[in-house]
Structures are given as C-alpha cells and as structure tokens.
C-alpha cells in the first residue's frame, strides 16, 4: 500500500506544477466589450490552466456565466450594461482570483479561448433583448427557468454528500471539537458549491441526526447518484503527530494505518460481520467500480490539496488510500470517503474549526467531483 501511495504523491505533485497558473502573478490590465465579444487583456500569456468556467443562479432570477481567472484585478470593479445583450461584471473575488460574470434574465451561451495575453469570450445571446437593470423585472417574469451549467446542459449529475456520523454518534471528539459538527458544516458548503455549478445534490443528513451506515448508500442508490462522497475527520489518540488530508476508496485494506482508520469509522458495525466474511465480501467487489472510485479519490484529493494550500500552505498530503469502509459498502456508483484532517493533532484541529479552511476544503472537494464527472462524460 505504501508503494502505491508513493506513486500517487508524485502524480499529485505534477498536477500541482501544472496548476501553478492559479498563482502565476497574472494581472488584468484592460477589458473591451462589444456586441458579441468580451476581451480581457492581461500582463502576460494566459492558458486554459489559468481559468475555469461555470454557471451560477441566484434568488434574483438572473442567469450567469462565470469565469474565474487566477489573476489580480487592479481596477477591483467593472460593471457594464447596455453595450452587449448581456450585463458584464468583473471584480476581485479573492486575493488570487478575478471573477468575470456575464448575466441576463434568460439563458445564453458563451465560448472562451485564449490568444497570448488575451482571454476572449464570445457571447452567443441569440435574439435576446439588451439587458438593462430597469427592464430586468419585466424580463424575468416571462423568462424560462435557468438551465444547468454549460457542461451539464444535456445531463444534470446527481451527487450524494454524506456528512459522517450524527445524532448519538459523535464520531471522533477531541479538544471540545466533535467530528459530526465539523463535517456537517463542510458538507453544507460542498452542497452549496455543487448546486452553484448546476449539479443536483442529495444530503444523507442536513442536521444533527443519526443515519445508520447501511442507509447512507441506500439513499444514494435510490437517487440514482453519479457520485457518493462521505466526509469525515480523522483521529489517532496514540499518535497525535499524525496530520493532513487523505481520501479513501473501498477496497481490502493493505496497510495497518488504513485498517486503523477504517476500524475507527466502522466501529458501530464491526460486530455485524466476522473478519473472514468482511474480507470475502471485499474481494468480490466490482473491479470496474473500484477503479472508478480510485479515480474519483485522486480527483478529490488533488482538488482539496490545491484549494486548501492556497491559504494553508503547510497542510500535509497523505494521498489516496484503500480501506474497508462500510459506509461505502453497497454503493452502486463511484464512492469515496474524505478525511479532512486529524482532530487529535492540534494544528489540524485549529484548521478544522477555521471557517476559511472549511470553505477551501469544500471548494476543493467540489472541484474534484466536477473534474471526475467531466472526465467520465468525456469533458474537458
């Protein structure tokens, strides 16, 4: 198992290098808007690795196409309506991300490409009336409902998010921090992020209630989910130096550490099967599903690592691991279990209750899920 992890870590390192554009020192210098095109001029060359696109909808009923660029935006804010059919807003979303938003009460399409130091957004608004704030209310009353994100227009993926433990089962609890509380907060943030990207999200629990392990994948199977992600926090009372992020997929455990983690998460059901029957069942797992779950685990682990390290640079990468986690048993779709950090480690514990860390972890999990689904659909 350790040799497998040692192979995965260099792979994640390569992904990190390929993604350095996310903090490459790019800066937006100017923008030009015409009737069917937005050009954003930067201080250096931009590639497809430097931006991502997705869809957002809000309570105001506006349909939004969003482009996040890893760049500084010295102007801090740019807002135009009436020049193009759609409204355009550019602003500094966070210290490393400039957000470009194109919006209209009705659905429209865009295509994005790069040309040296230019990000070019072609606007396909059809015969939409020019958007003005004054006409927005009347336009929205007759507008069709927004469609999902561009990559999911023909098929809306269903993702089941499973906040670990809950109710009488607190999970790990150290230093006044309970696993069930931390993972519920992060899970709700993941739910919000995925819905913003046009996916359907089902939560196995949205409050502090007990859900039996066997019911969690049943919920996913009934929802005909494309992905199942169970979110947890780790613990190791005998070794408080252990720390970091790791992602597991269901398979016979091949390392003592994986078995220890699995035993902790499985504690409420371990007496239901003998060790022999457990091993026999795991050896009969669908190999294709195991491979797909492995790929999902790699994408989620990479997404978390890239996102969290933007602000918390010292977070340790424990890689992707195999383990006999019974919360994943019975899932008829790719399924993984995420460990957000060790409650028994003081540094990890401080991060786990930090709202910014929770946000960054949620963004990373969402990025990984989206990347996996797009790859499965033959996407980018």
Descriptive notes:
The structure is a single chain. Strand 8 and strand 9 form a beta hairpin. The chain folds into 2 domains: 24-147, Immunoglobulin-like (Sandwich); 154-376, Aminopeptidase, CATH 3.40.630. Residues 1-23, 134-148 and 261-277 have low confidence and may be disordered. The protein has 380 residues and is of the alpha+beta class. It is globular and about 60 Å long. It has a 6-stranded mixed beta sheet, with helices on both faces. Strands 3-4-7-6-5 form a 5-stranded antiparallel beta sheet, with no helix packed on it. The longest helix has 22 residues, at 287-308. It has 9 helices and 17 strands. It starts with a helix and ends with a helix.
Summarize the structure.
The protein is 32% helix and 27% strand. By secondary structure, the protein is of the alpha+beta class. A hairpin with a 5-residue loop joins strand 3 (51-57) and strand 4 (63-69).
Lay out the secondary structure.
Blueprint: H1 2-18, E1 28-33, E2 37-42, E3 51-57, E4 63-69, E5 77-80, E6 87-94, E7 97-104, E8 109-115, E9 118-124, H2 136-142, E10 158-163, E11 173-174, E12 177-178, H3 179-196, E13 200-203, H4 213-222, E14 227-234, E15 245-250, H5 256-265, H6 275-283, H7 287-308, E16 317-323, E17 335-342, H8 346-352, H9 355-376
């Amino acid at each position: 198992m350790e040799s497998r992890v040692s192979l995965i870590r260099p792979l994640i390192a390569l992904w990190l290098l390929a993604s350095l554009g996310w903090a490459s020192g790019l800066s937006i210098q100017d923008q030009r808007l015409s009737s069917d095109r937005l050009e954003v001029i930067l201080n250096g060359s931009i590639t497809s690795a430097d931006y991502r696109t997705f869809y957002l909808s809000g309570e105001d009923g506006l349909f939004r196409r969003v482009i996040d660029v890893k760049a500084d935006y010295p102007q801090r804010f740019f807002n135009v309506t009436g020049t193009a059919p759609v409204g355009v807003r550019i602003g500094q979303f966070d210290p490393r991300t400039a957000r470009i938003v194109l919006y209209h009460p009705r659905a429209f399409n865009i295509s994005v490409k790069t040309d040296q130091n230019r990000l070019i957004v072609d606007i396909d608004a059809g015969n939409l009336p020019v958007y003005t704030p004054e006409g927005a209310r009347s336009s929205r009353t007759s507008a069709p409902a927004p469609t999902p994100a561009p990559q999911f227009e023909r098929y809306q993926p269903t993702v089941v998010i499973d906040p670990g433990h809950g109710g009488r089962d607190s999970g790990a609890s150290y230093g006044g921090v309970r696993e069930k509380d931390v993972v519920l907060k992060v899970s709700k943030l993941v739910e919000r992020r995925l819905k913003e990207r046009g996916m359907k999200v089902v939560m196995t629990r949205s409050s502090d209630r007990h859900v039996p392990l066997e019911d969690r994948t049943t919920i996913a199977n009934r929802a005909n989910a494309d992905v199942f992600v169970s979110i947890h926090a780790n613990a190791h009372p005998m070794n408080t130096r252990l720390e970091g992020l790791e992602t597991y997929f269901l398979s016979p455990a091949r390392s003592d550490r994986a078995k220890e983690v699995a035993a902790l998460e499985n504690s409420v059901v371990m007496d239901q099967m003998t060790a022999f029957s457990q091993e026999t069942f795991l050896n009969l797992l669908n190999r294709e599903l195991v491979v797909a779950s492995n790929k999902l685990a790699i994408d989620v682990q990479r997404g978390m690592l890239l996102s969290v390290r933007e602000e918390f640079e010292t977070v340790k990468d424990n890689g992707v691991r195999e383990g006999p986690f019974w919360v994943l048993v019975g899932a008829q779709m790719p399924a993984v279990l995420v460990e957000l950090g060790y409650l028994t480690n003081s540094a990890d514990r401080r991060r786990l209750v930090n709202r910014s860390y929770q946000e960054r972890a949620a963004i990373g999990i969402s990025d990984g899920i989206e990347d996996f689904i797009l790859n499965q659909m033959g996407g980018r």
